[in-house]
Amino acid sequence: MSKIGTAEWLDWKRLPLFSRYDAEASLVQMCDRLLEEATRQASGDDYIRQFLPQLATELSCQWCTLIERTPEWETLFEFGRNAAGGFPSHLCDEALDRDAAGLCVDENRADWSFMAAPLGDVRPGTILLVGGRDLNATSLSEAIISARALGYALSVVEQREKNLRRIKRLQTTLHIASSFSSARETQPLLELIAKEATRLLESERSSIFIWDREHKQVVACPALGVEGNTLRLPDDVGIVGDVIHSGKTICVDDAYNDERFDPSVDKSSGFRTHNLLCVPLRNNAGELIGAFEVMNKEKGKADYDDADAQSLEELGVQAATALENTREIEQLSRSRDQLTEQVKQKVQIIGKSSAITALRSTIERLAGTDLPVLILGESGTGKEVVSQSLHYQGPRANTPFIAVNCAALTETLLESELFGHEKGAFTDAHETRAGKFELAEGGTLFLDEIGDMSPGGQAKLLRVLEQKVVTRVGGSETIPINVRVVAATNAKLADAVRDKKFREDLYYRLSVVTLDLPPLRDRPEDVILLAEFFLAQFCSQANRRVLKISAEAKKRLQAHLWPGNVRELRNLMERVAFLCAGDRVEVEDLAFILSPARDSVVDMSADLSLKEASRRFQQEYIRRTIKRVGGNMSETAKCLGLHRSNLYRKMGQLDMHEANEGADDED
């Protein structure tokens, strides 16, 4: 193995230059400090104030300044005292033209000299100018080295300062953009965007111009000082029109001296525009949708520049995105409201009977609560309609309403359906799926035919109702839920509890409030109202005029016992609406649907004697006739073909309490 010789090292601070104290070493050391400090400073002004005195000392001058030709000579920074009073502009002009340092004696004071050195290409047009009594030609090399080092150092500081401003503006833009997400309506969002743009760009006012291509207009929002806060203008007028059609940014320092400026907006709002910056507004797809404008830079601030234009364009991208999102939200909200309203119109509890009147009143009181409700009633009495009324009349109206038919699901499927499952939880679980409880979050879950739920399903449902969390099948994460539960059944649930077929604790958890829906046969006064309601709906679907129901057809409808309840009546009206040949529903139109022979007033048990069955039939038939004519006993007797006194006698024989009530009324 070969030997490696000892390496020799020399670090920056041990350079011979740093150990010497002649003019050359001192100049190098000062330039080193200039460049080193440039990497730390964030302000060009502070940097020059710190190093200009050091430059004056290094160059052995009494006065030192930085001047810039714009096109007249303008003093940027100054240190010391200029004994000559003025300065030789011809020397400075020639120094720039030659790109060289120059020395001359002051024309008025022979003991005073000036030395000018350009800062180089990194700061074109800028001169380091010094004045003093002991300046000579040997100082020129020091001056040009110092000026060149200062130029590079200044460019580093100014770029750093520019980058810091850029970062700060980007941070501010991101912060502003995050505030846009809270807006749910377009007009408040536009006002927020305008407010934040004026703050970011240090302006007096700003406006967003949305391009209405169809009508060849731009809509200014907000248009402060204008009635309605909105102003419509032709899309080919003014600076905004130029920006929209060219897609290019326009910056104007003196608005009223620019021929493109349209003063009509100022006249409408009472505002006076001095300077402005207008950038194109583009959506996510890059399509031009309008213009974004700020006006009147705050007093004491420089006019709008490229950095301002870049910041406004970046804010415009965020604003355009927020506008599109807000419009989509508004559209979805309108669609949701329209759908909700359509459902509300269909979800109506029709009827004038005392039972239905009381039911509507109860629903109104319950709708604003989160109490669990158990709805009881025969099949077809409208249990789901009642549950929907509870939902759509309350504060959850704009949230999901999810219905589940418990009778249609096995215990295994019920758990997956209600609580969801993870991928691979069972053979057919090819993907993760949310359950009905999750889908109904914030809304209402309607559990129909709850009486048919298996014992295992009852236990799992009880746990969810008590803990208010669900766990998907095959998962371990508990998911909190906020769901109102409404259950329904056509079974006699109290009897099922007594027979140990339904959990008592679940029954009491579900039945905080119980609504018992009467069958349609017990409220014949509602039959015609319901029939006309359904008929109007289905005639609309059939694109025909609403059919009228003849008097005889109405009697036939009221005489029917409706074993299928409201559902049967609804289905009947649907068929009539599509199949009725005339403009009016006659008895003949109902004959093939409603057969008197099929009507069964009561559900007769097989073990009843003929006498008992006949007695029950007569009781029920008389009661229905009384309800149908609104309790008028004379009219009832007429419909039954009896004298009024004979009717009371018959009712007494049948042990009907209505006979005593009627006699009391007669007295």
Automatic annotation (TrEMBL):
<dbReference type="InterPro" id="IPR058031">
    <property type="entry name" value="AAA_lid_NorR"/>
</dbReference>
<dbReference type="InterPro" id="IPR003018">
    <property type="entry name" value="GAF"/>
</dbReference>
<keyword id="KW-0805">Transcription regulation</keyword>
<dbReference type="InterPro" id="IPR027417">
    <property type="entry name" value="P-loop_NTPase"/>
</dbReference>
<feature type="coiled-coil region">
    <location>
        <begin position="322"/>
        <end position="349"/>
    </location>
</feature>
<keyword id="KW-0547">Nucleotide-binding</keyword>
<dbReference type="InterPro" id="IPR002078">
    <property type="entry name" value="Sigma_54_int"/>
</dbReference>
<dbReference type="InterPro" id="IPR025943">
    <property type="entry name" value="Sigma_54_int_dom_ATP-bd_2"/>
</dbReference>
<dbReference type="InterPro" id="IPR029016">
    <property type="entry name" value="GAF-like_dom_sf"/>
</dbReference>
<dbReference type="InterPro" id="IPR025944">
    <property type="entry name" value="Sigma_54_int_dom_CS"/>
</dbReference>
<protein>
    <submittedName>
        <fullName>Nitrogen fixation protein VnfA</fullName>
    </submittedName>
</protein>
<dbReference type="Pfam" id="PF02954">
    <property type="entry name" value="HTH_8"/>
</dbReference>
<feature type="domain" description="Sigma-54 factor interaction">
    <location>
        <begin position="349"/>
        <end position="578"/>
    </location>
</feature>
<keyword id="KW-0238">DNA-binding</keyword>
<dbReference type="InterPro" id="IPR009057">
    <property type="entry name" value="Homeodomain-like_sf"/>
</dbReference>
<dbReference type="InterPro" id="IPR003593">
    <property type="entry name" value="AAA+_ATPase"/>
</dbReference>
<dbReference type="InterPro" id="IPR002197">
    <property type="entry name" value="HTH_Fis"/>
</dbReference>
<dbReference type="Pfam" id="PF01590">
    <property type="entry name" value="GAF"/>
</dbReference>
<keyword id="KW-0804">Transcription</keyword>
<keyword id="KW-0175">Coiled coil</keyword>
<dbReference type="Pfam" id="PF00158">
    <property type="entry name" value="Sigma54_activat"/>
</dbReference>
<dbReference type="Pfam" id="PF25601">
    <property type="entry name" value="AAA_lid_14"/>
</dbReference>
<keyword id="KW-0067">ATP-binding</keyword>
<dbReference type="InterPro" id="IPR025662">
    <property type="entry name" value="Sigma_54_int_dom_ATP-bd_1"/>
</dbReference>
